[in-house]
Write a structure and sequence with these properties.
The protein has two domains: 352 residues, Queuine tRNA-ribosyltransferase-like (TIM Barrel); 117 residues, no CATH class. 41% of the residues lie in helices and 17% in strands. It is built from 21 helices and 18 strands. Strands 6-5-4-11-10-9 form a six-stranded parallel beta sheet. The longest helix has 29 residues. The chain is elongated and about 85 Å long. The structure holds guanine and zinc ion. The site of zinc ion has 6 residues, from helix 13 and helix 15.
């Protein structure tokens, strides 16, 4: 791998980075969206992508050009950048997607790599085998072995400054994905797309998508730029970025427009069902839903494609800003509420909290507890791990949601969902969290788990938990032998006089 990717900011596994594309002479800020340009259709002109949308990178299909009587020679003579009229970076795909759709393609790995280089592609792709989800284990293994041979062969093709993708396959087997990623990272190739996830996304299988991405990330170094092949719906950008993806390609903006479908950050609407356009992009600001419906087919498709792209770019900017502010997980959580399948995706991400925690910065903005799922965030896990290492000073210690009490040797703060912490940490992330007054049960149970960690680390200390009306499930999750005091409007705080 060349030294082409620099990470600027982290949040969970998400990052803002800079991908240097030497052949194009441009540096692409990530997370980035690569709109798919079908050379035969060009729903939106590449020059328009550049001038109106600020696109600095796109993707087109090298195999479609290679097979095209109309474009093959022109691409070779003029080069892709002139042919498409685009001065940013151009990634090309190899025909692997056609291979997965039609079962065969008529070009070899080496030929299509050389062709991509000859037409001036900035980032090329070998012919990987996109093994679909749920394939049998043997098939997944043998197709992965073929993909790995192709990556090794790609290392020997002279492609000059062109970067080369090293796709990670392995179907829905996390161990194969991890091994595939480790192998790919060990080659001299440059960018690491997670492949064959389109069927997962089309099937709204976001939890498995997250599992596949997390498995691939375990096999890759932190300096590996990761592309999610074929992922272009803005509803999943925040989730996929939080799982560690840096690049997306969207054919969705154009394909959906062809069927009168209107993308939003929480799903897809059909133009026929819209009485109002819930968006402020130039298209939606200058048309009513009825006006869009009344357009001829081609201009209607173009306007919808423009809207779809505006939403997609806006969502990526929203994701980048959340990353900068350190509240990407809050954004993921808000987006997850838009669709039940996204809730599953977010839960799958939290199942990987260990993996997220290892990458997550220690200090960010303010932790917002937004739902019971927040109790499973990596920050809560990190705090609990810290509790197992913290020792307390006194023999008789109060863990209190309320005030200090001098009957005890020492008082620690107690706060759902984190649990106990020394007062000196009150002003540090994430313990400055904003939590709702009406907390969910999971938050109390997470706090009880934190109490348990501290008590286990300090077996010779007597602990008392002073709480405001914790639910029974949380109280019964406290270790045996811990004293409890219920605080409340009617109860006197315990003091020396009581003892
Ligand atoms: N486009 C969508 N999925 C894939 C994939 O797995 N491999 C390649 N090369 N292109 C894709
Ligand atoms: Zn719009």
């Amino acid at each position: 791998m060349r030294d082409i990717f620099e990470v600027r900011d982290f949040d969970g596994l998400g990052r803002i980075g800079e991908l240097e594309v030497p052949r194009a002479g441009v540096t692409v800020e990530t997370p980035a969206l690569l709109p798919v340009i079908n050379p035969h259709i060009r729903t939106i002109e590449p020059a328009t992508l550049e001038s109106e949308f600020g696109a600095d990178v796109l993707i087109t299909n090298g195999y479609v050009l290679y097979k095209s009587d109309e474009y093959r020679e022109r691409a070779l003579e003029e080069g892709l950048h002139d042919l498409l009229d685009f001065s940013g970076a151009i990634m090309t795909d190899s025909g692997s997607f056609q291979l997965s759709e039609y079962g065969e393609i008529s070009v070899t790995n080496e030929e299509i790599l050389r062709f991509q280089h000859e037409v001036g592609s900035d980032i090329g792709t070998p012919v990987d085998i996109p093994t679909p989800p749920d394939a049998g284990r043997e098939r997944a293994e043998s197709e992965l072995a073929t993909t790995q041979e192709r990556l090794a062969a790609a290392e020997d093709v002279d492609v000059g400054e062109m970067l080369v993708n090293a796709p990670v396959q392995g179907s829905t087997y996390p161990d194969l994905r991890e091994a595939a990623a480790e192998h790919a990272y060990g080659t001299s190739l440059d960018v690491f797309p997670v492949g064959a996830v389109v069927p997962l996304m089309n099937g709204y299988r976001y939890a498995e998508m997250v599992e596949v991405v997390l498995a691939a990330k375990r096999g890759l170094g932190a300096d590996a730029p990761v592309h999610l092949f074929g992922a272009g719906h803005p509803m999943m950008f925040a989730l996929a970025v939080a799982a560690g993806c840096d690049l997306f390609d969207s054919a969705a903006y154009a394909l959906y427009a062809r069927d009168d479908r209107y993308l939003t950050v929480s799903g897809t609407d059909h133009l026929d069902d819209l009485d109002y356009l819930p968006c402020g992009c130039p298209v939606c600001a200058s048309h009513t839903a009825a006006e869009l419906r009344a357009l001829e087919e081609r201009p209607r498709e173009e306007r919808l494609a423009e809207h779809n792209l505006h939403v997609s770019y806006r969502e990526l900017r929203t994701v980048r800003q959340a990353l900068r502010e350190g509240n990407l997980l809050e954004l993921v959580e808000r987006r997850a509420r838009g669709h039940p399948a996204m809730v599953d995706g977010y839960e799958a991400l939290l199942d990987g909290a260990d993996q997220l925690e290892a990458a997550d910065p220690v200090s960010k903005g303010t932790f917002f507890h937004l739902s019971s799922a927040s109790a499973r965030r990596p920050e809560v896990r990190r705090h609990h791990e810290r509790l197992a290492r913290l020792s307390v000073e006194g023999d008789d210690v109060l863990l209190s949601e309320g005030d200090d009490n001098d009957r005890f040797d020492e008082t620690w703060r107690l706060r759902p969902p984190f649990g106990p912490f020394p007062a000196a940490l009150s002003d540090s992330y994430p313990l400055t969290a904003e939590t709702p007054e009406r907390l969910d049960r999971d938050a109390y149970e997470a706090a009880a788990a934190g109490v348990r960690r501290l008590i286990e680390a300090n077996p010779n200390v007597a602990f008392t938990v002073a709480h405001w009306e914790w639910p029974d499930a949380a109280l019964s999750a406290l270790p045996d032998g811990v004293g409890t005091l219920e605080l409340g409007p009617d109860s006197e705080p315990p003091s020396d006089a009581d003892g």
